[in-house]
Amino acid sequence: MELEVRHLRALCAIADTGSLHRAARRLGVSQPSLTTQLRRIENALGAELFCRERTGCRPTLLGRAVLSRARPLVDGMTALVSDARAEADAVGASGPRLRIGCTASRVIGGWLRRLRLRLPGTDISLRVDVSARALLGDVASGVLDVAFVHEVEGSPLAVPDGLEQRVLLDREPQFISMSRDHPAASRPVVDLVDLAADRWMVDPTVDGEWDGLRRVFGAAGVAPTVLHGDYLTAASLVVLGEAVAPCQPTSGPRDDMAIRPLRDDPLAVRLLLVSRPGADMATVYGELEAAYREAARRAAGYHQWLLRNRSPLARTP
Question: Is the Cβ–Cβ distance between 98 and 115 less than 8 Å?
Fold first, then answer.
């Protein structure tokens, strides 16, 4: 038997609900049918994926390994179907549309709100992706109209020929998130060497992120332990004091986390808006810049950094 997405979706449902009965209800199948399907999957892989206990089902060591690979595939297929349906609806709809791509950013919400107010009647869609390169490729192929991406310092992006680009910020420093009781959290600015004994978490799927951090470590002569994972997981580890992690300076204040700049700003990115020729770049860029100013003002530490560095983004337009 070859594994299909529906099999992976069944495994995720069992793990999420902790019960074959509840998983069957979620999937809209009978429990005997799901039990038979699970047995066939386990036979195909050659070992049990779940321990059947009186209180429910618990993933085995192999089960956890399979689930860690299955979840991104299931999520990706769900996103693919959702995006395809949205694109089909957009093709059949009349009127103007604006298809936006973006790497993760704190300004997305404010930017979209401003664009919807500025461009009433325009069908605005959004796709967030960890890969700036993938987004640029989609702009070049016509799948997206514009993309707001970040370029890690030292890892330049290859912007496809024919695309227009504007730089929102030539150098945005990356701050560091740490637990509130971290010794360095009591200081307004943190030295990199003071974090050399910490575990650092970085998402290697973000274009250039790990390479950039590795270069900074090498230049500073430090070699901390590095954990690889997504930044949602990183935030939970940071709060518990299990790791520190780079973060956007526009990150809002949190009661359970300290966010501090690094001395001399060794980690930085360049923020770009890239579009296809003919896109209404002036309007889209103007609302992006305004949304970024708003986000910067809400993050007091970053606003002070902008003022110290005399950035035009610190000024009220």
Answer: yes
d(CA 9, CA 71): 8
DSSP string, 237-297: HHHTTS-BEEE-TTPPPBTTEEEEPBTT---EEEEEEEE-TTS-HHHHHHHHHHHHHHHHH
pLDDT tens, position by position, 31-52: 899 999 999 999 999 999 999 8
Q: What is the pLDDT of residues 137-178, one digit of tens each?
A: 999 988 899 999 999 998 899 899 999 999 999 999 999 999
Return the amino acid letter for 263: R
CA-based end-to-end distance of the chain: 63
Q: Which helix (H) or strand (E) holds 84?
A: helix 61-92
pTM of the model: 0.69
Q: What is the mean pLDDT of residues 264-284?
A: 90
Please name the residue that has the structure tokens 């912007």: 159
Burial 99-121 (b: 16+ CB within 10 A, else e): bbbbbebbbbebbbebbeeebee
Both tokens assigned to 163 = 């695309």
Q: Is the pLDDT of residue 94 over 70?
A: no
Using CA atoms, how far apart are residues 114 and 133, in angstroms rounded to an integer?
Answer: 26
Residues 99 and 126: their CA atoms lie apart, in Å, by: 6
CA pair distance 242, 255, nearest whole angstrom: 17
Task: For strands 199-202 and 268-275, give the pairing.
Answer: unpaired
